[in-house]
Design goal:
With 238 residues, this protein is of the alpha/beta class. A 5-stranded mixed sheet has the order 3-2-1-4-5. Strand 4, helix 5 and strand 5 form a beta-alpha-beta unit. Helix 1 crosses helix 7, helix 3 crosses helix 5 and helix 8 crosses helix 9. The longest helix is centred in the C-terminal third of the chain and has 23 residues. The termini are far apart.
């Protein structure tokens, strides 16, 4: 039994980035668990449900919202580390007092590396798990961790793949809720800048309100371009 961690939604212009951690024995996971990008949406939801139904599996999920992503004093590599660390603490906390009885100390963690340097990402993640964090407690009552990080871990490691699935399903659910919060618009799309439906939603919203919605990452170039175009259009009309 060990802990796998991954995130979904690093690149979209809409919605949060979601990190998930799964503490499990690989033998307890569905046999077809894989990187979430290689699994159909309906099957992802089925796998996620099966993961959560196993008594000996603990799951932690953490949301990094657009307002945090837009802060000028951070960057996506740091936010990825922070989100994964919060998810790890949540999974260990969900496991509770039985962690120490079931696992050797420190707890082995395998992460999908969110940095060009796997070793650097692992060092930072190890540090962030123990660091004080107002959004996830200070980690003082949790076991120590031994972190390794690899590129493509969500494809090569079933426990990290399980975390990938949990993170993607959680993000999809949040995007569906955001869509429901904007009934005046036809479709938000996937939330990625390359998605025509997403770009059309943002263009229409800016036309209607003069600003991007709260669900948008206003620091993304997509939002900058739309706001600049709207400002220029207003000047032209004047």
């Amino acid at each position: 039994m060990y802990l796998g961690v991954d995130e979904a939604g690093k690149g979209p212009v809409l919605g949060p980035m979601v990190a998930a951690a799964v503490l499990a024995d690989p033998a307890d996971l569905p046999v077809d668990v894989d990187d979430s990008k290689r699994i159909a949406p309906s099957r992802r939801e089925s796998i996620e449900g099966a993961i959560r139904e196993v008594d000996d599996v603990a799951v932690g999920v953490a949301f990094v919202e657009p307002a945090e992503i837009d802060r000028s004093d951070t960057d996506m590599n740091t936010l990825t580390v922070c989100g994964q660390a919060r998810a790890i603490r949540a999974a260990l906390d969900a496991r509770g007092d039985t962690v120490a009885a079931d696992l050797d100390e420190p707890v082995r963690v395998v992460a999908d590396a969110g940095d060009t340097s796997e070793a650097r990402f692992a060092r930072r993640l190890d540090k962030f798990v123990a660091a004080p964090d107002p959004d996830a407690g200070d980690g003082a009552d949790l076991p120590a961790v031994d972190v390794s990080a690899f590129h493509g871990a969500d494809e090569d490691d079933s426990v990290v793949g399980a975390a990938s699935v949990v993170a993607k399903v959680a993000r999809d659910e949040r995007m569906a809720a955001i869509d429901a919060d904007h009934p005046a618009y036809d479709d938000l799309g996937s939330g990625y800048p390359s998605d025509p439906a997403t770009r059309e939603f943002l263009r229409a919203y800016v036309d209607d309100h003069g600003d991007v919605p709260d669900c948008a990452r206003r620091s993304w170039a997509t939002c900058d371009d739309l706001l600049a175009a709207a400002e220029q259009s207003g000047l032209d009309e004047f």
